[in-house]
Amino acid sequence: MSEFVDGTERLAGVRPAVSMFGSSRAAADSQVYALAERTARLLSDAGFAVISGGGPGVMEAANKGAFYGRAPAVGLNIELPREQRANPYQDISLRFKHFFARKVMFVKFATAYVVLPGGFGTLDELFEALTLVQTRKTRRMPIILMQRAFWGGLLEWFRERLISGGTIDAHDVDLLQVVEEPQQAVDAIFAFYDKRGFEPSPAEREILLNL
Description:
By secondary structure, the chain is an alpha/beta fold. It has helices spanning 2-11, 31-45, 58-67, 99-108, 120-134, 148-163, 182-193, 202-209, and strands at residues 17-21, 49-52, 73-78, 92-96, 112-115, 143-146, 176-179. The protein has one domain (2-209): Rossmann fold, CATH 3.40.50.
């Protein structure tokens, strides 16, 4: 309970914000690290706080890009058996013992999700976001995948197996957008909110309160 309270109090004013996910194993000289850093910098300069898991790899790149931009870099660090190393690029740093409390913070304060190549943890966060939006347990928002070469096979599997098998509706795949370049991610978020603004509606606030 203390993690929920502390997280909510410290992040209450951090809006609009984008939650970014990706591999903790991405090397600092890798293409995906550079892509995450550049995307986060553009988001930060556009006025979005950037929320990451606070660790190394893509998480570090996301925080680093935002740290040198206009809006805050937020790290939601987690205690693991092999302790996660907190990256140094965090204007706001929180530490969680429980994954479920940390996951709520990623969702509760997000205006959009940007997901880069990653492993099981990245997939876990992606499917969490998809499930919550699909079931309307959180508000509709952009879920943006970066690099079609990485995600294309998964999207094709959705169509060939899930849609054809009737386990999801055809329009559920439309919850996802795929982009290649950092500016495309920023533009996609602005395009989504162009006619409605970033503030949640009264109905959406109720949903977020009961998340």
